[in-house]
Amino acid sequence: MKSANPDGPSGLVVVDKPSGWTSFDVVARVRRLAGTRRVGHAGTLDPMATGVLVIGINKATRLLGHLALTSKVYEGTIRLGETTNTDDAEGEQLAAVDASGLDDDIIRQALQGFRGEIEQVPPQVSAIKVDGKRSYARARAGETVELVARPVTVSQLDVVATRRQAATIDLDVVIACTSGTYIRSIARDLGATLGVGGHLTALRRTAVGPYTLEVARTLEQLVEHLDLLPLDEAVALGFPRLDVDADDARRMVHGIRLPAAGLGPGPVGVFGPGGELLALAEDRGDVLRSLCVFVG
Hints:
With about 300 residues, the chain is an alpha+beta fold. It contains eight helices and 19 strands. A hairpin with a 2-residue loop joins strand 12 and strand 13. The N terminus is likely disordered.
């Protein structure tokens, strides 16, 4: 194990998370590999799920809260005809209803209700806090937790394959959605809409914003070489870019607001005349206000 080095290189590691690992397990492994405790992740993946988990090291941890809000893309399998207490394959089966009578047209029609802006109740077994305690802890203690529906947006929900067994139907789906969307809840609610129950049997996240499986590395690969996306490249890839001259760079570094960039809603990466990353900033009315400064 390397000695802690909080002043070491900063950047992002895009991990292809294996099944069975929690997001915290991955963070702990990367801490050991990077030799620093300043490591975090953008957007939790359930232990069953695999795929893109964006990890920030040192100064890049400041980006994670902003990256967590970006859109995400998943590939998954929804099983119609079986309900579990976790809404996925890791839970105990609660009920089984013969789904073989559902034809493809009925399923397609039901899916329409899960596209666009929807209200979604998170799973009982989730990390959402209720009165200061995680919902999953309350659920595992036998409590019934009343979770409030939250607005999410599903921009894509496509069935790419359908497999029929004796009494169940498996739907392979591709889903693009906003942060905070639970794919398990879509599986649960689709099954409820169709009257047969449903749960998620597989899930793979293929993208978090611009970071995709193409740039992800397995933990085995990261043990061989910690493939770090430098902080400036990570910001340039993840956010709109604003290049400023030396005078504006000086103002930005000293906390003086600049005129609004006009590059759309959300953060922008501000770069100095030499291409160096200065800050992450956001338009507020007619001014550009820094969210986090990376120099000085």
